[in-house]
Structures are given as structure tokens and as C-alpha cells.
Write a structure and sequence with these properties.
This protein has one domain. By secondary structure, it is mostly helical. α3 packs parallel to α7 and α7 runs parallel beside α9. The chain is globular, with a radius of gyration of 20 Å. Helices cover 78% and strands 0% of the residues. The protein is built from 9 helices and no strands.
Length: 238
């Protein structure tokens, strides 16, 4: 009697399984979120110590967008460094590769989990930044529009960061190497997001420049995420 062939799960089912694995591991350990949250708080303390020495006439709004994105980028780097901690410690990535999975699904699941973790930390870090540094100023009425560049920027950071953290997973000094590779590649995205965030905080009469900066960031996301998705199989096989 012939045995019926085992049905291969769909790509979406594989995606949900891998994403659920990452979320359950983080909910149990809370290592990534805790380390990122503490790091963000320490960066805010350093900001406070540095800006406390400035003149009374200093306008924090002029550079608030840049300061906010420095906080986001360096906090994200810490999270991306830890995104494969469980896979490396328990050789789980090798086990995943033994299963007939599409490498693109592995990439999308890991990138999606990174997006969720980065956004969760930003939900805490951004209000704290506003409380400590923008409470004494009057941001423009368009300040809520910083949500869009934060979301678009986080998508790009998670996409290219997932690829690079996989590349540097088994290298010496992976923390430094990830930063060396990540910062130059993410610079166009960072430039566009800082521009859009600054315009939202300062207020603009014509939103054309804001949407152009946002479109530049979105275009970067599309190109780099697609490129990372295509190359991910080669990275896993290397």
C-alpha cells in the first residue's frame, strides 16, 4: 500500500510559524526588548548631559529630527545584533535550513519580527524623547506626521539589517562589522527620514518637500528589501 505524500505547508504557513517562533521566544526571554529599551534610555541620558551645557537660546527643534534618528538607528543596531542570538546559541538556524523552506520566507519572517520589536521600542523611546527634550518647546501642529517616516524608516532598517546581521552572524567582531556595513548602506534612508521628521516637527507651509523625502525613503525600502529578499538564499548557503 503506497503512502500518501506529505503535503508541503504553504509559504504563508511557513511565514506564520517562523514569525510565531520569534515572537514566543522574545515574550519568554524579553532579552532583545529589554536590552534595546535600556540602551535607548541610556542614550537619552547622554543627550541630556550633552545638551544641558548648551546656551539658553538653543532651539532643540532645529536638530530634534537628527537626534531622534540617531536614537533609532543605534538602538536598532543593538536589536539587530541580538536578532539571531537564539539561532546562533542553539544552532537553530542550521535546523531551519534542514527543512525545505524558501529562503525568502525565512527572510520575511525574521524581518517582520525585527519590525515589530523595533516599533515596540519606539513606542516607548519616542514619547520619552518628546517628554525630556520637546516639553519646553512648541512643536508644530504637523508633529504627528513623524509617524510616517518612523514607520517607513523602520521597515528599511529591518529589511537591510536582517540581511546584514545574517551575513555577519558567524564572523569575528560581528557587532563592529555589522555597524560598518549597516551605516553606509542605510545613509540614504536616514537622510530622507531625518529630513521628513525635521519638517514635521518644525512645520512647513508646503508639504511637497515632506512627501518627496518620504517617497525617497519608500523607494529605498522597496529596492533594498527586494534585493535582500533575492540575495538571502545566497547568504544562507554561504
Amino acid at each position: 500500500m503506497m503512502q500518501a505524500p506529505v503535503a508541503t505547508p504553504s509559504g504563508f504557513s511557513q511565514f506564520k510559524t517562523l514569525l510565531g517562533k520569534d515572537l514566543r521566544l522574545e515574550i519568554r526571554s524579553k532579552q532583545m526588548l529589554t536590552s534595546m529599551g535600556i540602551y535607548a534610555l541610556l542614550v537619552l541620558i547622554v543627550y541630556g548631559a550633552a545638551l544641558a551645557q548648551t546656551a539658553w537660546g538653543f532651539n532643540i527643534l532645529q536638530m530634534a529630527g537628527g537626534l531622534l534618528w540617531v536614537l533609532v538607528v543605534f538602538t536598532s543596531l543593538l536589536g539587530l545584533n541580538r536578532s539571531f542570538a537564539h539561532e546562533k546559541e542553539f544552532a537553530a538556524l542550521d535546523g531551519i535550513l534542514l527543512v525545505p523552506l524558501d529562503p525568502g520566507v525565512v527572510f520575511l519572517a525574521k524581518a517582520a519580527s525585527n519590525v515589530i520589536f523595533l516599533l515596540l521600542v519606539q513606542l516607548i523611546a519616542v514619547p520619552l524623547f518628546a517628554f525630556f527634550f520637546l516639553a519646553s518647546t512648541a512643536p508644530a501642529a504637523t508633529a504627528p506626521f513623524i509617524v510616517l517616516p518612523l514607520l517607513v524608516g523602520t521597515l528599511g532598517i529591518a529589511g537591510i539589517g536582517t540581511l546584514l546581521s545574517t551575513i555577519t552572524l558567524h564572523t569575528r567582531g560581528k557587532d563592529v562589522l555589522l555597524a560598518v556595513l549597516f551605516i553606509p548602506l542605510v545613509f540614504p534612508l536616514l537622510y530622507a527620514c531625518v529630513s521628513a521628521t525635521s519638517m514635521a516637527l518644525l512645520g512647513v507651509d508646503d508639504f511637497g518637500d515632506y512627501w518627496r523625502s518620504l517617497a525617497m525613503a519608500g523607494g529605498y525600502d522597496v529596492v533594498m528589501i527586494l534585493l535582500s529578499w533575492v540575495l538571502y538564499g545566497f547568504v544562507l548557503d554561504a
